[in-house]
Amino acid sequence: MKETPQQYAERILGYVEGKQPLVVQAATAKKLNRLIKGVSTAKLHRRPAPDKWSVSEIIAHLADAEIVGAFRLRFILGSRKMGNKRTLRPTRSAEIGGALLRAPGMEHCAT
Question: What pTM was computed for the model?
Answer without folding.
Answer: 0.61
